[in-house]
Design goal:
Blueprint lengths: L1 H28 L6 H11 L3 H9 L29 H8 L6 E6 L5 E4 H5 L4 E9 L3 E11 H8 L7 E9 L7 E7 H4 L4 E7 L2 E2 L9 E4 L11 E7 L12 H6 L8
Helix pairs in contact: 1-2, 1-3
Bound molecules: ligand MTE and molybdenum atom.
Length: 262
């Protein structure tokens, strides 16, 4: 579907340039050496690759994403991308309220795990009201409750070689059932306090349209990093051997930036 990729990409550029211009004013305030035109010239010519370094100037990797109040909640949280995975396996799990679903955590871990939803839900939880920003040009504020990923990693014990967590999802992106959605984050984001596996949205069980039974919230990253319908978390040293090798479905399919942190 090349057309869809194009418009998605276009919106993303617009969105990122808005972010960059916002960040630019802050950077410029503390940077006398570059004139405005030089700085913006650089941004326009090197484009998106600057986002990472720009934002590094502004925040450390441990900084918290903004959290909001109940009064700020969007009236509804829309669904984007897959709204119900087109696979027999998922539909069967959904029919039985995900009682037979289990999350696999494997790869570079000392202690591979398989946990049911009930087992995940008895672990300590975190609730956060945050803004989701999709590159297609929409945002929504939602209240998420879930298990911090660091709680699960403490049980699985990543080895020292583990550099990334890869989230393998249930939804095939092609009609023939292949190309499951996937995403990946580095260990800084994996251990970040606001990185949670959410099983509730706005005080209700996470709906299928938003990623049931669990979806990732990685609050300082753009929407496409927030993997829905997670089946397996694989700890790896590199993701070059996975699918297209760029660390995520949209990274492979449409050259999205792997690092989408803001
Ligand atoms: N498994 C899976 N995860 C996904 C997607 C998807 O299609 N499949 N879409 C991504 C995109 S582009 C966005 S903006 C958000 C949308 O989340 P929502 O459906 O809860 O709004 O999920 C992200 N995670
Ligand atoms: Mo998105």
């Amino acid at each position: 579907m090349p057309q869809r990729y194009n418009s998605h990409q276009h919106e993303r550029r617009r969105f990122l340039s808005r972010l960059l211009l916002g960040a630019g004013t802050v950077v410029l305030a503390g940077c006398d050496k570059l004139s405005h035109s030089e700085w913006f010239g650089k941004v326009l010519s090197t484009g998106e690759s600057l986002t990472k370094s720009t934002h590094h100037l502004l925040r450390t990797r441990r900084a918290m994403a903004q959290e909001f109040d109940e009064a700020d909640l969007s009236p509804s949280f829309r669904s984007n991308g897959t709204s119900s995975p087109n696979s027999m396996e998922y539909q069967t799990l959904a029919k039985n309220n995900f009682l037979d679903w289990a999350l696999t955590i494997d790869g570079l871990v000392e202690n591979p795990l398989k946990l049911t939803l009930a087992q995940i839900q008895v672990l300590p939880s975190r609730t956060q009201i945050t803004r989701h920003d999709c590159v297609e040009g929409w945002s929504a504020i939602g209240k998420w409750k879930g298990t911090p990923l660091h709680e699960l990693l403490a049980l699985a014990k990543p080895t020292t070689q583990a550099k990334y967590a890869v989230f393998h999802c249930a939804d095939p992106m092609k009609d023939d059932g292949t190309h499951l959605y996937y995403e990946s984050i580095d260990m800084d984001d994996a251990f970040h306090a606001q990185t949670i596996l959410a099983y509730q949205l706005n005080d209700e069980t996470l709906p299928i349209k938003n990623g049931a039974p669990i979806r990732l919230r990685v609050e300082r990253q753009l929407g496409y990093k927030h993997a829905k319908y997670i089946m397996r978390i694989e700890l790896v040293e590199s993701f070059k051997h996975i699918e297209g090798g760029k660390g995520g479905y949209w990274e492979d399919a449409a050259d999205y930036e792997w690092y989408a942190g803001i």
